[in-house]
Design a protein that fits this description.
Elements lengths: L8 H10 L7 H11 L1 H8 L3 E3 L5 E5 L5 H40 L17 H15 L3 H9 L6 H7 L2 H10 L2 H9 L5 H19 L22 H4 L10 H11 L8 H6 L27
Antiparallel strand pairs: 1-2
Length: 298
Amino acid sequence: MEPKPHLTYPKQLELLKKRGMLIDNATAALALLQRTGYYTLSGYWYPFRVRDADGVLSDQFRLGTSITWVQALWEFDNRLRSATFVAIQHVETYLRALLAYALGAIDPMVHRKPGLLSIDRAEDYPRWLDKLDRKVRESRDDFVVHHRENRQGVIPVWVATDVLDWGGLSYLYSFAPPQVRADVAARFQLNAAQLKSWFKALNVVRNVCAHHGRFFNRYYSLTPKLPLKGKVDSLDAIGSAKSTTFAMPTLLQYLGSHTTGTNMRILPAVVRTFPKDAGMIIGALGTPDDWETLPLWK
């Protein structure tokens, strides 16, 4: 199959007009295409495409669809993604500290002693260790270089945790002895199985944020295990919508509420900036009607 032909920016704009998109300001629209890219923006106009008589999704847009709607949604998504990434980083720092401290108390090199760990799937551990070793070899961080050059390459677990990304940290948590998993989870009033599932779900979110992916109306196949209904009102509210975008910042709001120094006002303030005149409702995020009254979102 041949690829689609390359189109200049003016031709891209003409194609959008032909498909029914309103262009109020051609100069501004061209600048948006140049700054953002046609393919990136296509994720934001996708919900406005209509189906033909056979129910097949067509290239035509819903009547009234405007490039200004697309821009407003893209700008909102940038704000939401950035605020979510900040929240993840704050929680991630605390999780690193908790895990490093608890594992280091068992043995400074516990991460290299599988007999001291609790590994569910044997094939995961050597892959994880290979990735850690590669990160250590390639790292130019002063603290890693110091251990390579002055400590004979001996990297204790409290150093290793600072080398790992969120995914690697998630695996290390899953390898930890049951009591360590339980103790770390208890800091958030969760059990180990719940926190493990949150690690996995939020790893996808972190990757989307880090790689500037469309975020606001995404759905997730990895969903979190939640506490029993009645324990946390805000978590009860996402029980039927665990695969939505709104569920993920809600998890971060909950984790942040148990993390010293978290600014709990940032994410609610950003969500409130959802564009009201951009052809979509805020429910596209997965928000319940009363989301602003939920304790974690007030």
